[in-house]
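Sample A.
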Amino acid sequence: MTDERIALVTGASRGVGKGIALALGAAGHTVYVTGRSTDGSITYPRVGGSVEQTAREVTAAGGRGVPMVCDHTDDSQVAAVIDAIRDRSGGLDLLVNNVWAGYRPYHEDRHTDMEGVFWEQPLSVWDDMFTGGVRAHYATTVLAVPVLRPGALVVTVSFFPGSYLSGEDQVAYSVAKAADDRMIAVMAEQLRPRQVTAVSLYPGLVRTEGVLSAAEFMDLSNSESPEFVGRAVVALAGDPAVTRHTGHCLVAAELAEEYGFTDLDGSRPASARGYFRERAGGS
């Protein structure tokens, strides 16, 4: 064994996953990057990105990027990724469950599928968020546990709607995020004897490719770069006392206050927790 830190970031062709991979690369990690998009076949041309491009940028940032083409709704493909990591690197120090198919209608210009009350939305909205989200996170973690080394960290990217109740939110989205959070809380208890920490991580409004394509309709004054979320993961992965967080839902902007990191431009975005509490009527 060496001091090389091995990470797997799922769904890292673009967006938050890519930002996390790049931040880990800048911190010197070897990062296995998964996704369906390749240089020769971009899944969503409107937002772009590929596993090879992210891996190249991880290496350029100072780490070692390893592209792994994987559809996380196919357990056999996920198992093949885990087997390859075991064979090449001996184990994992960090698993980031970021893959998320829940925004497929946006990427495919089917915005109306995500609008209105739940009975007016196609059932595929639920399936995308659970099959390509919650279940993918669960299955990847199940398959990764045997290769997680003592002291390893599991981070599942979630979001605020799982932590409060508001009728303004999409039913499927809210339930998916609540499911991720409860999944991590229970996993954390069962992983304790293996000396593995598991947390949920809430970004704020992140300037992903999709968000920037709709920037004219949004207030980005308190937004975050994808790498800012990545710096939160780097801080957690480098904390020798990270076990105190196990089972908890953590907010990237609040971790910036705790660990003292900033965004790429030196700013420190405020936590969006208060905004979402207001949406829930102060609950």
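Sample B.
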Amino acid sequence: MLNTIYAAYGLSWDAVAGADTGARDLADEALFLSRLVVTLLPAQPEARGLLALLLYCESRCAARRGSDGSFVPLKLQDARLWSRDLIIEAENHLSTASRSGVFGRYQCEAAIQSVHAQRALTGRTRHDALATLYQLLATHCSSVGVLVAQAAAMVEAGEAAQALAVLQRLVPAELGSYQPYWVTLANALVAAGDRTSGAQALQTAIGLTEDVAIRAFLLSSLQALLQHNGDATA
């Protein structure tokens, strides 16, 4: 049941606040169901972990797109636009769930989002803590998505070589058209100093991107990277 609710919310991820779309309705429904499950199963830590995770993600809804509809990645979002009330609600559920002392996927993912949420208070992101939490998640619940997210956290923590090592362990046949892999690979390659290969990976990611706003953001990133490469060889 929890996996189904999470999958439903995932389908609505790109819906922006106030949008008259079925995706926005799906997000609201997922939140309603998650709260209902917690009400029915208050002692279930993973139910609270999932609700906390959704609330953290939902708290940033207003900041994920610019006023012109442009895509804004998490690290560039204005934390002042995040919903303080939803973050507090999420923190309360995560704190209650953590008292069980039992590891859970959703609790761990919520803890990762909690680290991001702290930027609203401290003005900085503890990338070392994120890398540690992703390592824990990868140990207990390894998947392509988790490993790619772990590698992305490593890049932000200044561990590009380690990130590339994680990405290189993935089986190409299992990646298919998984766009986040190519974005993360591009970032890791650039961080490691291989801008040419990074640009190639970014071009692949762009070809796999359907969202117009995200595609425009990646195209802008590619243009800046190619410009840098051109300046370096001039």
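B remarks: Residues 16-20 have pLDDT under 50 and may be disordered. The longest helix spans residues 212-233.
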